[in-house]
Amino acid sequence: MPDAQTLWLISPELVLAIFGLAILLFAIIWRERVYGALAWVALVGLALALAAAVNLWGAHARLFAGMYAVDMFALFFKIVAPIAGILVVLISMDYLRERTRYRGEFFVLLTFAILAMMMMASSANLLMIFLSIEFLSYMSYLLTGFLREDRKSNEAAIKYLLYGAITSAVMLYGLSLLYGISGSLNLGDVALTFSKSADTSVQTLALVATALVLAGLGFKISLVPFHQWAPDAYEGAPTPVTAFLSVGPKAVGFAVLLRFTLTTLPGLPEFANYWTPLLVIISIATMTLGNLVALRQTNVKRLLAYSSIAQAGYMLIGLVAVNLGGSSPFSGLNGVLIYLFAYLFTNLGAFVCVIAIENATGIVEIPEYAGLVKRAPLVAALFIVFFLSLAGIPPTAGFVGKFFVFGAALREGFLVLAAIGVLNSVISVFYYFGVVRAAFFLEPKDTSPIRVAPLVTLSLVVTAAMVLLIAVYPEPLFNLAAWSMAMLK
Amino acid sequence: MLTVNHLIFLSAILFSIGAVGVLVRRNPLIMFMSIELMLNAVNLAFVAFARYLQNLDGQVFVFLILTVAAAEVAVGLAIIVALFRQRETIDVDEASILKG
Amino acid sequence: MLDRYGVIALFAFVAILFPAIPLAMAWVVRPKKPNRSKRTTYECGLEFEDFPQAAQNVWVQFRVQYYIYALIFVVFDVEVVFLYPWAVAYNALGLFALVEMVIFLGILVAALAYAWRNDLLKWV
């Protein structure tokens, strides 16, 4: 029987669950008459969940027989998740009105997706990890295929689903081996078995099992070689969903990856010898492949898809250069969290720009962006801000993130890795500049001004302001990241 | 005598058959069946381990894998039906218009 | 010995009579107006001969309606798996488990209500 304290500790999740079901019930009872209002109900729910998560800051507890960790690390992501949700709701209202009859259901699925993100961040048990990942995946598949009349949307959904189903089966096999080795589903107990066992066969099996689990998590984060779904899913999905997919699952995928690796792997004596080179190779492959393929994209959603694959590679550098001992801000993990927070606003902002144009004109091809500066000056100007941030050029949030991630790599002696990271950032400038070049320096065929909806303008301004704010006043974010990391040690 | 080793070996074989099936077939329905085979291999491993370890956690896990797999099939078939209504084929290569 | 087999024979005789008598009575009483669809073997209301010639191979296309029914059935059918452990341990679990199960079923009912409201349970 859970007491009031337990219910209090899961209050963000409870709020989202209740609001998600409430939106579903409203949609069942009143249908089309309230579809316009349901987005606002979802906004209220997400804002309340955000307030509940902020309110819990400082909590440190293990609930439900150790399955569910409510600590500052989880709360960091429980703050990130509703912020992403609120921005996605703001940009999806106008987009959906013209494209689908089922606007109410969209917000049910989105609310539950945010709930699933929170559950992933708190998972401290193999069963909980599996359930929350699947929960988020199913919501993502349905959101991707939400435009049922649209061929691309359906195709994106089926490809996403098949990749997801295969990788989750592979991950489950790894989980079953971990259970077999340790006799427990609890991450802490699994780690304890690893450290106590001197048997080399157990160590080998543990490495195989953790590698299989990495496949499942790599799919969520879109690491090479589990990235193939990303470009197709991103291009075909409704654009607000693409914006959500590029930040939401990636952020909490990292949350699970960090908690999983940092809890269980220090128990493996062979950890450093096998895992570090593996992660270095994956990181380099992810960055390089994402950036090189992005160079020849002409669809802006596809371009941002490859760009977000590359961004996952940069973030992985932080995990490679992990140093649990010291209290330096360059501990790698701080870098990952700071990077994720900066990336959240930057990438969502870039997608808001895409949606602003797509809503009014239906344009998603880069050559058609010609002369955008004359048609929508604000959107064109903010494209520059977000692309500077994605490329990691000051004074933007992206620079702060890259500074800490690459700084950690240098501090831990991964000079080549840091150099490849910087080189990749330089490559990325080329394709980001391609969009800017079309928008600023080419002559438009059609010069009619593009009208941007008020809510989209609002989200544009908010994301751009956050990107610049993090760059000029990053201290609160540093403290946030440092505290949440301290909890994980 | 049937030991845990035999069961884990069988589970590995089943998992491999499923994995090969999903890689070589291009019909999503058959790919789903192969994925189900992979999941059932995992279930077998969990049950075998649970019995060997005298620990019920693994059996609870199997319960949840079963229900989650049913949900996965429901979501998957719903998308396949929507896809079929659009283009009269479900072959994943034939149906592909997203490339690059 | 023989009378024991006699009992079985008697049972077999009654078992054959049991369906035979009503069928025979119906045969005597009913009006006889055969037409094509009455003479076919009953199979889900769709006739093989009704398909166009091109579609008359093994891979006939079924109506999407079947899938939707099957999907709803599978999901609810599998969720029942959670009821069994709860029912077995009901006495040990007490009131709170009952409340939990009511919440669980409530969520399932919400999903069913959604399907119902969207006319997915209506055979068209």
Q: Layout of SSEs?
A:
The complex is a heterotrimer of chains A (489), B (100) and C (124).
Chain A: H1 4-9, H2 11-30, H3 35-55, E1 61-63, E2 68-70, H4 72-97, H5 103-122, H6 126-144, H7 151-182, H8 187-196, H9 200-221, H10 229-236, H11 239-264, H12 271-294, H13 300-320, H14 333-361, H15 372-375, H16 377-391, H17 397-411, H18 415-441, H19 454-472, H20 475-488
Antiparallel strand pairs in A: 1-2
Chain B: H1 4-24, H2 28-53, H3 57-87
Chain C: H1 2-29, H2 36-39, H3 64-79, H4 83-88, H5 90-93, H6 95-117
Describe this structure in words.
The complex is a heterotrimer of chains A (489), B (100) and C (124). By secondary structure, chain A is mainly α. Chain A has a domain at 270-489. Chain A has helices at 4-9, 11-30, 35-55, 72-97, 103-122, 126-144, 151-182, 187-196, 200-221, 229-236, 239-264, 271-294, 300-320, 333-361, 372-375, 377-391, 397-411, 415-441, 454-472, 475-488; strands at residues 61-63, 68-70. Chain A has a two-stranded antiparallel ribbon with strand order 1-2. The mean pLDDT of chain A is 87. With 100 residues, chain B is mostly helical. Chain B has helices spanning 4-24, 28-53, 57-87. In chain C, 65% of the residues lie in helices and 0% in strands. Chain C is built from 6 helices and no strands. Chains in contact: A-B, A-C, B-C. At the A-B interface, α6, α7 and α10 of A face α1, α2 and α3 of B.
What are the salient characteristics of this protein?
heterotrimer, A: 489 residues, mainly alpha, 20 helices, B: 100 residues, 78% helix
Radius of gyration of chain B: 17 Å
Helix segment count of chain B?
3
Shape, principal axes of CA atoms of chain C: flat
Sheet/helix structural class of chain C: mainly alpha
CATH architectural type of chain B: Orthogonal Bundle
The string of secondary-structure elements of chain B, in order, is HHH
CATH topology of chain B: the name is Helix Hairpins
Q: Spans of chain B with pLDDT under 50 lasting ≥5 residues?
A: none
Q: Evaluate the radius of gyration of chain C.
A: 25 Å
> In oligomeric terms, what are we looking at?
heterotrimer
Helix content of chain C: 55-70%
Largest β sheet strand count, sense and barrel closure of chain B: none
Number of helices of chain C: 6
The percent of residues in helical segments of chain B reads over 70%
The portion of residues forming beta strands of chain C comes to: under 5%
Distance between the termini of chain C: 59 Å
Helix/strand order of chain C, N-terminal first: HHHHHH
Strand content of chain B: under 5%
| Unreliable spans of chain C | none
Choose one word for the global shape of chain B. Answer: elongated
Overall strand count of chain C:
0
